[in-house]
Amino acid sequence: MAREIYQAIVDGILVGGVYALMAVGLTLIFGVLDIINIAQGILVILGAYLSYELAARLHIDLFLGLLVTVPAMFVIGVAIQWAFIRPLRGRERTSMTLLVTYAIALIIEGILYQAFGPNYKQLNGWYVTSSVHVFGFYLPYIYLFGFVLALALVAALYTMLYRTRFGRSVRATMQDETAARLVGIDTNRVSAITFGVGVAVTAAGGMVYGATSGGFNPNSGYDLISRLLAIIILGGLGSIGGAMVAAVFMLTLESLVDVWSPNWAIVVFYAALVLVLLIRPTGFFGRQPVRAQ
Amino acid sequence: MKHARIAGLAVLLAVGVAFPLIFPNPAATNYGVYTLIFVAVASAWNLFSGYSGYISLGHAVFFGSGAYALGIAAMDWHVSGVAVFALLPLCAVVGALIAVPFGLVALRVRRHTFIVITIAVFFIFQLMAYNFSFTGGSIGVNAPFLPWQAAIYNERFYYIALGCAVGALVVAWLVRRSRFGLHLRAIRDDEDRARGLGVRAMRVKLTAFALSGAVTGLVGGIWFFYISQVQPPSGFDPLFDLSVVLMAFLGGLGTVAGPALGALIIEPGQLYLNVTFTNGYLSEILLGAVFLAVVLLMPRGIIPTGGEWVTKLRTRGRPVISPPAPVQAESDATKAEAKR
Predict the structure, then answer these.
(1) To the nearest whole angstrom, how far is the Cα of A70 from the nearest Cα of chain B?
(2) Domain containing residue B171
(3) Cβ atoms of residues B42 and B262 within 8 Å
């Protein structure tokens, strides 16, 4: 039993790393644009399908394929922001953007169904099926590789945000958009690029998700987005560190409950969110009180 | 003007009542039943979300719970036949009872966080319906057999749904006219200021949420009885939430007639698409596309935008009368009232 629990914790942390990557994209978009991108879940699935197509048709290795899919998803993200998010202004913007991204999610889901059908697909590679023996645990290579990839990308995002000029303008926009515009930051450009980056990481997240989740279909997007939303709210909206901590915490919790009962694991996931918010409405690392309008 | 409005409403009601007599075939009345169910639900949704500005994407919780409550109660208490209709108030009670703890958690936070919590609670309910034994797991619950002939089955349900829809609209209208409704809209405009002016925000929001949940639960019970079965994905359906929100936005958020108008346009369209494109995916894409078009082109909805056009048409050629500058002390709610 103790052994199963240790294994569950290790699994939770490794999978949590991948969720952290996807959640950081989402919370970054929230921080800069003040919107929640409901389409993030289906975009992850889209990324997984792109990897699947590259691997199945052109026999490109999953990790190499990222060199194609990440830029592709970046372009898709910028296009979505430019066409549908940018025009929204005014008092109802919050709910409007939510509905717009929900609608985009529906459209993408429909297109994916049309193209691939409802059958479950899985991504394959030698590292998906074989595993490595460390400290008495059997770990599939993909979990390790995925975790390392997630760490590398999160580190890259962190460097971009805190060590570059562009990152500084992103953080300025997150703090106060009007003031950022006043000091000469092109906030439209910052918004577009941030949305693109937030979507681009879903390509990597989707690839690892597609290889580790044991099968995905267009409907998997709902499951993903609800988890990601729970994670970023728990971490505190707009907090990048919070999203990472919350992702690892939630996935480890789920993995632990899963040892006891797989059916209830996901319920505990949401129940944890509700409980934490009862005590702390701003989440773990909320920047500002959520109550303030 | 007032007489014209009453006459218009009477004509609409007469059309509603006469519809199954003019189109007696079951396919048409089926459209009618579904549309009226959504008229009722969209009005109930608007009663809370449209008036208060708290957008709920979790109303399927009430809808599905109403359906499950009816099915489980009928099964456990061995109620059958027409007597099941006596259990309908139970659906409303269940809806309201779920709304209170749901609201106590969710209404502590605003804007995005509120919306996300409603989504989370929605998924908790769907998963519970899958996992508990008394909900029948993925098989769901079946309704007791109703000894009505096929010919009159749809027609009777049509009138029941019509009664519900009219009832929901009347409730929405009464709330909008009342002091309670004004409180709600004051919360929508500026919650902190409303609290400062003495509105008991939490109590008002929770009451509206419970009222909305009760009506939605009741309609959920009727829907369940009509299609005579419920499974977790049909009772707790994310598309349900989205359709209801789309209806309210298309018609006009926060207006009485808007959500009903939206439902009258969207639900038959959706049913038609489902019948025409049987794989269902194309209708999903189209729903999303319509949604995008509505939000981008007509963000305030048909009723407010249409109202503006009518006013423009009437005052054509006359000098523009600018409204007097708003007094500083006037609250946002009354300003918003004056604009309408």
Answers:
(1) 25
(2) 22-307
(3) yes
Which of A112, A267, A276 is the best residue to mutate to test the B interface, defined by the most B CB atoms within 10 Å of its own CB? A267
Q: Predicted confidence band at B323 (pLDDT cuts at 50, 70, 90)? A: low
CATH number at residue B237: 1.10.3470
**DSSP 8-state assignment for residue B142:** E
A109/B113 touch (CB, cutoff 8 Å), yes or no: no
* Chain position carrying tokens 């048909």: B302
Mutation target vs B (from A33, A229, A293; most B CBs, 10 A cutoff): A229
DSSP state letter for B84: G
**How far is Cα B118 from Cα B4, in angstroms, rounded to an integer?**
41
Is B7 a domain residue?
no
Q: Cα–Cα distance between B269 and B259 in angstroms, integer?
A: 15
Residue carrying structure tokens 């991948």:
A18
Pair type for strands A137-140 and B229-230: unpaired
**Which ranges of A34-183 does DSSP label H, i.e. alpha helix?**
40-58, 62-80, 93-116, 126-129, 141-163, 165-175, 177-182
Q: For residue B320, is it within any domain?
A: no
Does any domain span residue B28?
yes
Half-sphere exposure of residue B107, counting CA atoms within 13 Å on the CB side?
24
Q: Going residue by residue through chain A (293 aa), what tens digit of pLDDT does each one get?
A: 677 788 888 888 888 888 888 888 888 888 778 888 888 889 999 999 998 888 888 888 888 888 888 999 999 999 998 888 888 876 677 777 888 888 898 889 888 988 888 888 888 777 777 777 777 777 778 888 888 888 888 888 888 888 888 888 888 888 788 888 888 888 888 888 889 998 998 888 888 888 887 788 888 888 888 888 888 888 887 777 888 888 888 888 888 888 877 777 777 877 888 788 777 777 777 655 433 33
Tokens of B321: 């009368």
pLDDT score, position A291:
37
pTM for this entry: 0.80
Class of domain A2-279: mainly alpha
CA B282 to chain A, closest CA, distance in angstroms equals: 6
Sign of CA dihedral B160, B163, B165, B167: negative
Tell me the shortest Cα–Cα distance from A71 to chain B, in angstroms: 25
B245 in contact with A, Cβ within 8 Å: yes
Is B157 contained in some domain? yes
- B15 burial level (CB within 10 Å; 0-12, 13-18, 19+): exposed
Look up residue B89 and give its two tokens: 């108030």
Q: Is the dihedral angle over the CA atoms A129, A133, A139, A145 positive or is it negative?
A: negative
Residue with tokens 């075939």: B25
Cα A134 to chain centroid, rounded: 28
Residue B46 pLDDT > 60: yes
- Consecutive H or E run containing B166: helix B150-177
> Out of A113, A226, A271, whose CB is closest to B281?
A113
Q: Domain extents for chain A?
A: 2-279
ipTM of the assembly? 0.76
In sequence order, what are the residues at sequence separation of 6 or more whose Cβ sits closer than 8 angstroms to the Cβ of residue B213? B48, B59, B61, B62, B95, B96, B98, B99, B102
